[in-house]
Amino acid sequence: AKFLSIESNPITLARAIMSDQRRHPEAKGDLTMILSSLMLACKFVSNAVRKAGIASLIGISGSSNVQGEQQKPLDILANDIFINSLKYCNKIAALASEEETGIYIIDNPDEAKYVIAFDPLDGSSNIDVNVSIGSIFAIWKRPDYSKPVVLEDFLRTGAEVEVSGYCIYGSSTQLVIATKEGKVDCFTLDNSIGDFILTHPNLRIPKKGNIYSVNEGNSHFWDKSMKEYVNLVKTPQDDNTYSLRYVGSMVSDVHRTLLYGGIFLYPADKKSPNGKLRVLYEVFPMSFIVEAAGGKATDGRRRLLDIKAHDIHQRSPCILGSPDDVDTIVAIYAKNDEEE
Ligand code: P6P
């Protein structure tokens, strides 16, 4: 019967956004327009990612991005697709991209109320070995949209996010969107009709999981609390033992954590004192989504969404997942800080 309902009553992303909008009579439909543009961008990127191997888009394009990493043509293409899709919806005043040094201001005929930060293709080092990758975004409402765009429009807390989401280009293409009302929906792209269909409405993360996800190759550089926590989950206990699952593509590791539960960790370490992940377009959107699904997101000591960004490319440690699992590591940090 459930399958039948999708067959005979497919809830497309467009329809879901429209019904969301109807719940907010004051809404002008701006977010509807922005999400429609993002949906188009994700379809285009999905198409490009799946053709990459054939279209020999793989390989080094020679230019390098602001992160000093070798840019692959798909990075460039995905960035251009997102910028162009967002430029013409007339609802975004400016954007910050992992691939752009500074903010990219869009000339709008009227007052655009929103700004967006995105990573157009996160995990791109995995493209050549056919590991899932993804696009990640977060949208803020500008504090004062009667004024021209300023950098401060982006230097916000994660708690001020209006909508955030990611698109994972894996065995299927799935778009996960979270709103500040705490609603998380997952849509799956049906290529035969070229539309995203609501397949996992109202996603909730399991209260506790049995998977931990971290790059153990960095364990030599972890702080005391991280070592103590990972040692704890590796010690078989009667009620549950943990498995390690680490893809090395944030969208994949977070998506699995959201659906199966458990914990994802990219902590600070001696090599990367602020961790590796970027606050504006990796840590904030993923923390916002996990919290909206009933999970927690911390740097070990403080809630990640309470961080106020001071630079659009700043990094932060990132520990997120099932509330019980996150509580366990937070208690270890608190105990060790107490003892110091
Ligand atoms: P490491 C991919 O390059 C990325 O930015 C994230 O998608 C991923 O979680 C992380 O880096 C992996 O980093 O150091 O474990 O290879």
From TrEMBL:
Q: In which pathway does it act?
A: Carbohydrate biosynthesis
A GO cellular component entry from the record: cytosol
Q: Where does the record place the Fructose-1-6-bisphosphatase class 1 C-terminal domain?
A: 205-333
Summary of subunit composition and partner proteins: Homotetramer.
> Can you tell me where the transmembrane regions are?
none
Q: What is this protein called?
A: fructose-bisphosphatase
Which protein family is it in? Belongs to the FBPase class 1 family.
Cofactors needed by this protein, per the record, are:
Mg(2+)
Tell me one GO biological process term: fructose 1,6-bisphosphate metabolic process
Give the reactions, separated by semicolons, that this protein catalyses. Answer: beta-D-fructose 1,6-bisphosphate + H2O = beta-D-fructose 6-phosphate + phosphate
Fructose-1-6-bisphosphatase class I N-terminal domain location: 11-201
EC annotation from Swiss-Prot or TrEMBL: 3.1.3.11
* Protein source organism: Stentor coeruleus
SUPFAM superfamilies referenced in this protein's UniProt entry, alphabetically: Carbohydrate phosphatase
- Do you know which Pfam families this protein is assigned to? FBPase, FBPase_C
Query: Mind listing the GO molecular function terms for this protein?
Result: fructose 1,6-bisphosphate 1-phosphatase activity; metal ion binding
So which domain of life are we looking at?
Answer: Eukaryota
